[in-house]
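Researcher: Here's the sequence for the chain we discussed earlier.
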Amino acid sequence: MCAGEKRRLTIPSNLGYGDQGSPPKIPGKATLLFDVELLKISAGGDSHDADGPDGGLEGDQDPYYGGGGGGMPDYAGEEEL
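Model: Thanks. This is the structure I predict for it:
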């Protein structure tokens, strides 16, 4: 990926929360969908040292810790086996 590029990552249930899910937000057998954007690439060193403990995301940009994203990924519903 290049800086500024966006991708959708699809994580099948067997690589995510599996059959049990993570109630109440994520049902069992859920496929997780993550929309991500690479903000920047830092040369050398640990990105936590260079950009802060959250890896370069400011509070309002970080969906898990700073609000704005609800803290949970979207899911595509139950998979058919």
